[in-house]
Amino acid sequence: MKSYRTTYKNKKFSKERIELDGNSFINCIFEGCIIILENGDTDLRGSAFKNCELMLRGNAYTIAKIIKMFSGKSPLKVVDLDEPLLEKQSIE
Question: Taking the model in full, what pTM does it have?
Answer without folding.
Answer: 0.75
